[in-house]
UniProtKB/TrEMBL annotation:
It holds the Pfam family WYL. Coiled coil: none annotated. PROSITE patterns: WYL. InterPro entries: CBASS_pafABC_assoc_protein (IPR051534), HTH_11 (IPR013196), WH-like_DNA-bd_sf (IPR036388), WH_DNA-bd_sf (IPR036390), WYL_dom (IPR026881). Residues 137-202 form the WYL domain. Gene3D superfamilies: Winged helix-like DNA-binding domain superfamily/Winged helix DNA-binding domain. Residues 6-59 form the Helix-turn-helix type domain. This is HTH domain protein.
Amino acid sequence: MRRAERLFRVIQYLKRAGQPVTAAAIGRHLEVSVRTVYRDIAHLVGSGVPIEGEAGVGYVLRDAYELAPVTFTFEQLEALAFGVRATAALADRDLADSARAALAKIEAALPEAHASRLRDAPLYAFRSDDTPAAPDHLSRLRLAVREKRKARLDYASIAGQQTERTVWPLALIRWSHVWMLAGWCELRGDFRSFRVERIDRLALLKDRYPDQPGRTLADFVARQTGR
């Protein structure tokens, strides 16, 4: 990792943390030594970045600080273009429109040489004839995940069994040709994944689910990856 990119990531990490973070924690996040973190912090402070704290206690970035606009490598521009095209091909209309709008904002802020590279990136994603359209409930499920709202759904299993469940929606996953909802199922008392197109009826509840240990998205991912 180049030093400029690492310094940028240190600032982003401190901004997201919103509280004092030790050099050891920063080092683990960036996979560098604590000594490297100390040098990076000293460089950033010397450059005028408002980082407060000290070694052994932790560092915090004042809320008012904003990063200057950043440039992208050509490979990063191609990744952005491909991401938007894949979203447009595979996601629901609202998410596809939002992706295009975000790309337009990025393009408007770039020098013309970079903007043209973004527009003309030779990476595409298309829906094949046998790829189903985005499921009807995808947009509302994204809202449920974002707002941590419980969802009640009527679900038809592959075997044809109909069940009514209350689920804590944690994430939406594109798996091969289908969209999957990952969540904590109150009926089974465990994590479950549901094919979105098999959800017959969906109701978003006013109740919001807590970040309960053992039932979070991180726990689900750890279960799937064995970590």
